[in-house]
């Protein structure tokens, strides 16, 4: 299949974008980047929630204060019972432990919520990506003018041919042509 470049009106230097990319030697890095296929959507990385981080931080500080207070306290506990001594030693760490446990619960809940949302959104993003990919595959490159173009009916049977598209604008054309308000 050949396609006529809208700028030089000749088909001899025209090549489909996927084919142009496959020809490794013919394109330099910046051109290759502009013609690259739209990236497959990835689920957003899960982040630890601010509430969980705050709880962990407060627990950490309290824990440290507990350790310091025990180190600095020269009081002898020999005259007290084992249970009292244990309570005295462990007391300062009860609150940090509770806060850390709550922080962990908050973190797990937030991670689950994030995973559910990602699971729900990914099929939608994937369908849009498929549309972007189809438009991208329909693109052509003229290696004389170094412009991209979409021949008539290449993206959709009813769509006329595009004008010559500067390569810097090609990714944007791919995105908008596949969207709900298609410009092609
Ligand atoms: Zn041309």
- Give the fraction of residues assigned to helices: 40-55%
Name the bound molecules.
zinc ion
| Strand ordering within the main sheet | 1-2-3-4
What is the chain-wise order of helices and strands? Answer: EHHHHHEEEH
Instruction: List segments where confidence is low: pLDDT < 50 over at least 5 consecutive residues.
Output: none
Overall structural class, as computed from helix and strand content, comes to: mainly alpha
Shape: rod-shaped
Number of helices: 6
Radius of gyration: 31 Å
Number of strands: 4
Task: Characterize the structure shown.
A hairpin with a 4-residue loop joins strand 2 and strand 3. This protein has 2 domains: 14-42 and 127-178, no CATH class; 50-121. The longest helix is centred in the middle third of the chain and has 45 residues, at 94-138. The protein is rod-shaped. The chain is mostly helical and 184 residues long. The two termini are 21 Å apart. The chain is built from 6 helices and 4 strands; from the N terminus they run E-H-H-H-H-H-E-E-E-H. The chain has helices at 17-22, 29-35, 50-72, 82-90, 94-138, 170-178, and strands spanning 14-16, 140-142, 147-149, 165-166. Helix 3 runs antiparallel to helix 5 and helix 5 (94-138) crosses helix 6 (170-178). Bound molecules: zinc ion (ZN). Zinc ion binds next to loops.
């Amino acid at each position: 299949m050949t396609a006529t470049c809208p700028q030089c009106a000749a088909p001899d230097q025209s090549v489909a974008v996927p084919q142009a990319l496959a020809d490794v030697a013919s394109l330099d890095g910046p051109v290759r980047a502009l013609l690259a296929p739209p990236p497959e959507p990835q689920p957003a990385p899960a982040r630890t929630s601010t509430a969980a981080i705050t709880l962990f931080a407060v627990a950490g500080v309290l824990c440290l204060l507990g350790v310091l207070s025990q180190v600095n306290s020269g009081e002898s506990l020999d005259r007290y019972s084992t249970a009292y001594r244990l309570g005295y030693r462990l007391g300062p760490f009860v609150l940090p432990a509770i806060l850390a446990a709550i922080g962990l619960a908050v973190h797990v809940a937030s991670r689950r919520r994030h995973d559910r949302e990602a699971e729900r959104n990914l099929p939608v993003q994937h369908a849009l990506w498929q549309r972007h990919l189809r438009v991208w595959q329909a693109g052509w490159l003229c290696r004389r003018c170094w412009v991209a173009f979409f021949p008539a009916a290449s993206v959709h049977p009813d769509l006329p041919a595009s004008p010559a598209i500067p390569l810097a604008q090609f990714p944007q054309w791919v995105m908008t042509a596949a969207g709900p308000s298609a410009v092609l």
